[in-house]
Task: structure prediction
Amino acid sequence: PMININYATDFFGKYKDIQRDRMALLHSENADQKALYHIIIATVIQSRIRINTLQLQLKNNKQSVINWKKTYEVAQAQYRENIASPLILRSVEESLARAKEKLPETEQKITKEMYVLDTLLGVPAGTTINPPMTLPSLPKLIPITQTARMSQLLLRPDIVALEQKLVSNTYAVSHAMALRYPDINLSFQGGFQSSDISEVIEWDNQVYS
Result:
């Protein structure tokens, strides 16, 4: 019986570079995953802000229609009393009509944006109906210093992913350069050898190489 032991040496760092390369790729993929989460969250927030903005715009448009209706009533009364000219009455009518035209357009934009939000949230389109208006209650942003801004940027997952990919490529280049050198393997064989099977396991019949 013989026992064979083979050991691959790493004098030139081939296997160590491969390990570092794969670890850097793993960290890069994890960072890419976090970056994707951040992108989805940011996109949802942006969609929600657009909905809130359109809701405020719709509110202002409705108030504008109310105001123009009142102005039109006043213009009609003045026209009947020969105080306002037909041109003024016609101008007020056109302004009221334009204000009314904006209502369905804005409502359509809100509906479309809510469908986009439902798609981002992974729910059937039309699930979100009349979300609350939260823009006025948003906290005021606190200015941050340039140093703090840079430190926060370095924590961004997409930047971390790029850094890890750079590390991975660096070790990949190092590994490619190490491939120019020969492979060195250490081998060991040991066991017992005898022409007489009854004496094969005696210590005097040990063989090493």
In short: The two ends are 14 Å apart (CA to CA).
